[in-house]
TrEMBL record:
<keyword id="KW-0679">Respiratory chain</keyword>
<dbReference type="InterPro" id="IPR036257">
    <property type="entry name" value="Cyt_c_oxidase_su2_TM_sf"/>
</dbReference>
<dbReference type="InterPro" id="IPR011759">
    <property type="entry name" value="Cyt_c_oxidase_su2_TM_dom"/>
</dbReference>
<dbReference type="Pfam" id="PF02790">
    <property type="entry name" value="COX2_TM"/>
</dbReference>
<keyword id="KW-1133">Transmembrane helix</keyword>
<keyword id="KW-0186">Copper</keyword>
<comment type="function">
    <text>Subunits I and II form the functional core of the enzyme complex. Electrons originating in cytochrome c are transferred via heme a and Cu(A) to the binuclear center formed by heme a3 and Cu(B).</text>
</comment>
<feature type="signal peptide">
    <location>
        <begin position="1"/>
        <end position="19"/>
    </location>
</feature>
<keyword id="KW-0479">Metal-binding</keyword>
<dbReference type="InterPro" id="IPR014222">
    <property type="entry name" value="Cyt_c_oxidase_su2"/>
</dbReference>
<keyword id="KW-0249">Electron transport</keyword>
<keyword id="KW-0472">Membrane</keyword>
<dbReference type="InterPro" id="IPR002429">
    <property type="entry name" value="CcO_II-like_C"/>
</dbReference>
<dbReference type="InterPro" id="IPR008972">
    <property type="entry name" value="Cupredoxin"/>
</dbReference>
<keyword id="KW-0732">Signal</keyword>
<feature type="transmembrane region" description="Helical">
    <location>
        <begin position="33"/>
        <end position="58"/>
    </location>
</feature>
<feature type="transmembrane region" description="Helical">
    <location>
        <begin position="79"/>
        <end position="104"/>
    </location>
</feature>
Length: 228
């Protein structure tokens, strides 16, 4: 009976739109790479285990010819023991190196520790809205407009409780704290309109704490800043 639900489940999954894999910035590209990279490594492990499992099931299955057979006592195998100790360590190292490098490079930092240059935007979170203030003082609620091809420096802080800034197609989740200002960079965003949200439950209006992120050309961004 369970088998009847397997095919419909797979058909439903094929229609899933996984936003984090549809990356639209260099920052999101690196994060999507880590997801696919780790998935590929896990599939290799699953494949090896599955092949060994199937082989052993057939090789050592119960038959009338083997029912009275007693296999020899094997006390150890140095090659196998070395393989199943060193193999997982190598896989962990192969996974850990790019993960640590990318995660460290993209982690949000305190405002006082930020050294890179870019387009600064003040992001203020409060129950249940977002406010975006640009360098010239232009301010807008629930609409973030940024130029393409630049390093966007988001100066994140909260006026009340902990929130989480997230535009899945442009970058990862970043906690927004009430007692400190964090700087998160989005590298080289590409033109388009993307959904943003609060990814930290922050009260009864959490689901409506959404915003639109619009990546526009340099000229359009300059015109936007000059609008009144």
């Amino acid at each position: 009976m369970k088998k009847l639900f397997v095919l419909p489940l797979f058909l439903l999954l094929t229609g899933c739109n996984i936003a984090v894999l549809d990356s639209q910035s260099d920052t999101a590209d690196d994060q999507a790479f880590l997801i696919l990279y780790s998935l590929a490594l896990m599939l290799v492990v699953v494949l090896i285990v599955s092949i060994l499992f199937i082989r052993f099931v057939f090789k050592y299955r119960y038959t009338d010819e083997r029912k009275d057979n007693i296999p020899p006592d094997v006390k150890g195998n140095k090659w196998l023991e070395t393989a199943w100790v060193v193999g997982p360590l190598l896989l962990l190292a192969i996974l850990a190196v790019p993960t640590i490098m990318i995660t460290y490079d993209q982690s949000a930092v305190l405002s006082s520790e930020s050294e890179n240059e870019g387009v600064p935007i003040q992001v203020t979170a409060r129950q249940y809205e977002w406010t975006f203030e640009h360098a010239n003082g232009k301010t807008e609620q629930n609409r973030l407009v940024i130029p393409e091809g630049e390093t966007i420096q988001l100066h994140l802080h909260s006026e009340d409780i902990i929130h989480s800034f997230w535009v899945p197609k442009l970058g990862g989740k970043v906690d927004v704290m009430p007692d400190r200002e964090l700087v998160y960079e989005i590298q080289n965003p590409r033109i388009g309109t993307y959904d943003g949200k609060c990814a930290e439950y922050c009260g009864v209006g959490h689901t409506s704490m959404r915003f639109v992120a619009e990546v526009v050309s340099q000229e359009e961004y300059e015109n936007y800043l000059n609008e009144r």
